[in-house]
Amino acid sequence: MLTYILFALVIGSIYALLAQSLMLSWGLAGLVNLGLAGFFAIGAYASAMATTWHHAPIPAGLAIAIIVGGAVGLLVCISTLKLRDDYLAIVTLGFAEVVRVVASNEVWLTGGTDGIPGVPVMVPRDLGLGFHAGTLAVVVVAVALVYGLQRRLLAAPWGRTLRAIREDQTVASVAGKSTVRFKAEAFCIASAIAALAGALYGHYTSYVAPDQFQPLVTIYIFLAVTAGGNTRPAGAVIGAYALVAFLEATRFLADLVPGLAPVQAASLREIIVGLGLLLVLSVRPNGILPERSQKAPAR
Amino acid sequence: MEALLQTLVNGLVAGSLLAVPALGFSAIFAVLRFPNFAIGALATAGAYGAWLANVGLGAPIPVAVAIGFVVAGLAGVAVEFAALDRLGRAGHLMKAIGSLAVGMVLENVIRFAFGNDLKAFDLPLARDIVFGPVRIGPQQLASVGFALAAMAAFWAFLSLTSLGRSMRAVADNPNLARLKGVDPTVVALVTVFLGAGLCGVGGTLIGLDASLDPLTGGRILLSVFAAAVVGGLGSIPGAVVGAFLIGITEEMSSLALAPAYRLAVSFAVIFLVLSFRPAGLLGRAVR
User: Could you tell me which residue, A123 or B50, shows the higher pLDDT?
Assistant: First the structure.
């Protein structure tokens, strides 16, 4: 039971990193990243390849994941930043699908659908409970570091500019801010954070395969961020842990309904998650922790 | 050369099947101004409706296609007014995200009811028709006919009826249309019904071409987006031109690449068009 709780907390912390990534791009910069699962995958693969096949130490693997994630993020967003926001949504959605197709088919590069087994773990596995607790400690430190970084960025003029751009691009550019540059920077940092989450995930499960990066993950994180509040790092973190509690609860809920085939139980859970997102979006679009600022009254 | 000709024919068939949902997606984008990510699941819903009518009730294929249209259209209207409409107040991006969630719910409702097994329509076995070096299945030919008929009917609706004219007016300039007394709610309702219905027809035709499972519609989502983006998002004739271009490009790419990469081809096209000509071939300039 303790193992189960620790496992849920590690996953919750990894989701907290993903949620902070989405908070930065969507909540602050207004850039909807529907390809979060793709950046998560890129990070997991980058670090797993470097450490498993090229025997790089894990910190180097994490650094590589961050760099690759940020670079790919820049590449993906750069063509659509001058266009309406929905174009980026379409491009990122497609990007995540392409990552999965490439990961499943380029066996020479990624191991194909068999994935990469034997990814080194951060804490020796034979410690049993200690393995989970130790990994949790590492991941929580990562969450805290990213949280601190986000708080700094938010308080800095950079964060203010970003919010100004989100609210009104024209005003921001009249004030002399390069909207494209700020948005690109935000998206790049956000992608790097998502990739870091992926790398840590791979070093926890010690196995990386295309199936782990379903578009479903993106929906989960949208639910977490909307529920927690999409403009505050603390909201994103709280939302992520609440999400994992909610997901685990739906697991028990699906077990309670008698006579369900496994497929039906799985689809029932996804239905609940989807309805949950729709509900939160329409009832509490600002989340548990709404934005603190001197915004003009709601339209 | 023969392989090339055959691929071209396959591309034209794929393009005409793709054009129907692309038309629906573009119409919804033009009038309601958000990319509806639920169209894949709506296409699947229509296809399952048609399949039930065909296999369960013994309806002939043309009737089943019509039922696919109605089922998807009603499902589209239901989700628009039950869920998406209220999200629209917080902006079009909220609606886009909401539509992704709607798509996921719909897809899983279908999976819950029918499982993941492949379903096939009740079709007579028939020999391919051979024109010189090119072969084509009679069902494919019929499907192209249905697709062309659906497109023609939609075009006639847009240009000949007053509701169709109102739709184009709202797409062109919503404020001006409202000043002229066009009721935006009615136009939105009709657009969503027709757009989702066209997606349902597209899903049915694709199900007829191969088989049906809960991901049938989701698999064409990127190709539909690619078609709409190439033609210019929100442009009705653009969606049709784009669909044929994407259909042919995807089939041509299958000569050189693994079939799984069709999706990557669509993505590459979206990416290149948005980088170099974001208005698409026939779209208006975008901001």
Answer: B50
